[in-house]
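Please produce the structure of this protein holding FE2/S2 (inorganic) cluster.
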Amino acid sequence: MAAYSINVNGETKKVDVLPDTPLLWVLRDSLGLVGTKYGCGIAQCGSCTVHVNGTAARSCSLPISAVGKNSITTIEGLSEKGDHPVQLAWMEVDVPQCGYCQAGQIMNAAALLAKTPSPTEDQIATAMNGNICRCGTYHRIKDAIVIASSKMK
Amino acid sequence: MNTLSKTNRRDFIKLGMAAGSGLVLGFSWREGAASSLEVLNESALPAGLVDFNSYLSISTDNVITIFSPNPELGQNIKTSFPMIVAEELDADWKKVKVVQAVLDTKKYERQLTGGSGAIPHSWERLRKAGATARHMLLEAAAKRWKTSAGSLTTKEGNVIHADGRKLSYGELATDAASVPVPTEVKLKDKKDFKIIGQPIHNVDNLEMVTGQPLFGLDFYREGMLFAMIQRPASCGMKIKSVDSAAAKAMQGIVDVVTFKNNVAVVGKSTWEVNKARKALKIEYEKEGNIESTTDHDRIFKESLDRTDATVRRKRWRCRCCV
Ligand code: FES
Ligand code: FES
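Below is the modeled complex.
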């Protein structure tokens, strides 16, 4: 076990875990931030997506020992009241079906729009390509990103 | 078409005041919904059917709580069930609070998801649950205004007098709880539906987009342990020996349990358990045929090539859907 001090959603959190523990399990098991979901554990599905210094990253494949001073944002910290433009757009078009993949989808979409505020359809498809949705909500995800993009202007 | 439904006393049992809320109605969940609701002779019903599985409550501050007993798996049942109740109740949808009922096999029946059966199965009883409560609220208002219930109307959570006066459901809830449960309730004409048929947002949207705990995986309790099961790699393999010494000695591991043909690692966190599972040394022996994909391919090809086919099922739908 080793003690780590990490920056999550603007707060410093201390945890005592094995150095190879993926950030995903630190968030879920140690910090009770269960919005970030486990899907595959091998960087193939995107359900565990969080932001590391604003960039989308797969928390299932990021060991706690590599987090360092980087700032982590999870779905719980994306906005104060669920009113980030992406979250608002998601609710407007009822993107989620079961909802399981959606934290990852939203975090990835928010990271995309932070860098590319007005993405083309191709840019959306490319950026979202690694986020799998078992319910097949892809068309609404795309619609919602377009709406979120217009809300951010 | 207005439907006059006979409501059996057993189906709507007034629970009266509960936990400071106003009107609480329980309605039972039974196989063969429509028919059992029309049974007039109670003694003709099998015993032990009075268990409840869903509740509608109206608080004095106008919050209508509808408990949804079925598991939500993305089919939106947690939104559609309450919509049906709220429709017949003439509730203000904005003030409806939906609560997922817990698994309670004694209290509830058929808490399952499958076969697209939930709405057809519950449609009528959910409507009756709403309509029954509405009837009782109307009666309570009529008593207060010293008029007949028939002269009153309802809209968005209020009973409305012919002269325009209003009483909210919340104001009436306590009185309504002492109104006798009607034996017959009038269901709405479908053309008057205001909630059913509308694009209503999923009641869990905010929870889903903000990452609130909604899923089985999100269940945590203070001090709870985690377990992972190592199963054989294929059918036809049987455990010969298990060496769990290394796994047991690992950080955070509480126990390693062998049961049937599986080995479970129990420990204090997901990651520790996952690591220890990989450290198990399990020897397997062949118990029977180990079927490979090639075997399956061959079996299917042989079946397709056979000319002496046996018809197993003529209907095109599976039995659960007919
Ligand atoms: S759980 Fe991380 S990508 Fe699937
Ligand atoms: S909404 Fe169910 S997996 Fe995407």
